[in-house]
Amino acid sequence: MPSSFLVFPSLFGFFNEGEDPIYSIESPEIKTAIQALIMASSLCQRIKRERVESHSLLKGDRSPVTIADYGSQAIINKLIKERFPNDPIVAEEDAEELKKAENLEILNQVTRYVNEFIPRVSSKEICSWIDWSTSSVKERFWTLDPIDGTKGFLRGDQYAIALALIEEGEVQIGLLACPNLYVDKDQPDGKKGCLFLAMEGNGAFQMDMESGEKRSLSVSRTESPEGAIFTESVEPDHADHLTHKKVAKRLNVLSPPILMDSQAKYGIVARGEATVYIRVPSPSDPHYREKIWDHAAGALIAKEAGGKVTDILGRPLDFSCGLRLERNRGILVTNGILHETILKALENLVIL
Questions:
Q1: Are 154 and 53 in contact (CB under 8 A)?
Q2: Stronger pLDDT, 215 or 13, i.e. the higher one
Q3: To which H or E segment does residue 178 belong?
C-alpha cells in the first residue's frame, strides 16, 4: 500500500471486534468502500494543496470536470471492480474528453496523481478504469460521484465523494467522504475531514478522517418550524431558491439557510446541524429529474440517523429507474418531525 495512504493510520480501527458483524472490517463491501474513499480523498486533497485544480474540462452540459474527478473515479472503480468484478458501477464521469489529443496535459496529470496511490499504471489503464462505469442498472450495483460539488471543490469549499451500494432499487450502503467539512458542528473553524457511513437498518456514523474517532449520528429533535435550520445548494441554478425562501417565510423560520455544496448537506442534517434540506427543481428546468449518484449515499445516511427523505411530493425516492430518479420530483430531507409540516408549506408553491 502506498505511503500516501498511510496518512490515515487509524482507519482500520473504525470497527471494533464484537460490534455488529455487518460493520466489521471483515465485511468486504464496507472494507473496500472505506479504503477506496479514503484513498480518493487523499488524492483530491493533494491536488488542492498543490493548486492544480484550475486544470479542468467542460462537459457537454457546461459543468466542469477536474483531474481530481478523473483520479477519484479511477481509484474507486479500480478497487471496487477488483473486489466485486460482477458488480456494475454507475458513475458520473467517463474518459471520452480526457483521451482527446488536446487534453494530453490533463491526462498526464491524472496519471501522475493516480500513480502516487497505485504505482506503475499507464494512462491507458487509468482511462479504462474510469470507463468501467456503465448505464446498466441491475439488481445489485454501485453508484459513484467521484466529486459531488465540483464547483465547491474548485472554490475550496465543500465537496463530497459519494459511493452507494444499491440492491433491488434500495440503497444498502451509503458513504460520503467530505474532506473539507468540519468535524465538530459546534466548531466550524476547527479540524476538517469527515466520513459519513450508513448501512440499511444499522444506523449512521461519522468518522474523523484524521484520528479515526467515530460516533453515531442522530438528527435534530427540533419540533418548531421557527427553530428549524434549512440547508440548500450554493449554486442558484441547481434549485429554486425563491421557492425555498417562500417556504421558510410561511413557516416563520428565523435562521438564514446554510448554503453548502454537495451531499455534505445530507451529512449536516444527519448530525443535527441542519433540520431541513430542500431542493425544489429550478424554474428554468422544471422537468429535471435528479441523478441517482447525487442522492443515494446521502439519503441512506440521513434516514439511518433518524431523518426522513422523500421527494417534494412526499414520495419515497426510487432508485430502480435507471440513472435518474424518474418517478420523483425534487428532494426533501428533514428530521422526520417536521416532514409533513414542510410538505404542507410546499403546497401551491410548486407548479406540477
A1: yes
A2: 215
A3: strand 170-182
Report residue 323 as a C-alpha cell: 440513472
Residue 1 has pLDDT above 50, yes or no: no
Contact call for residues 130 and 77 (beta carbons, < 8 A):
yes
Among candidates 303, 275, 277, 305, which has minimal Cα distance to 290? Answer: 277
| Same-domain pairing of 212 and 231 | no
Q: CA-CA distance, 197 to 87, in Å (whole number)?
A: 20
Where a domain ends, among 216, 242, 273? 216
| Active-site residue flag, 150 | yes
Does 191 lie in the same domain as 264? no
Cβ distance 120 to 74 under 8 Å? Answer: no
Q: Do residues 186 and 246 share a domain?
A: no
The pLDDT assigned to 61 comes to 63
Q: Which domain holds residue 183?
A: 3-216
Strands 230-232, 258-259: pairing is parallel
- Does residue 117 carry a pLDDT above 70? yes
User: Catalytic residue among 32, 150, 243, 334, which?
Assistant: 150
| pLDDT attached to residue 235 | 85
DSSP for 30-75 reads HHHHHHHHHHHHHHHHHHHHTT-TT-EEE-TTS-EEEHHHHHHHHH
Indicate which residue of 32, 69, 143, 240 is catalytic: 69
d(CA 107, CA 120): 15
pLDDT at 60: 61
Q: Count of residues for the chain?
A: 352
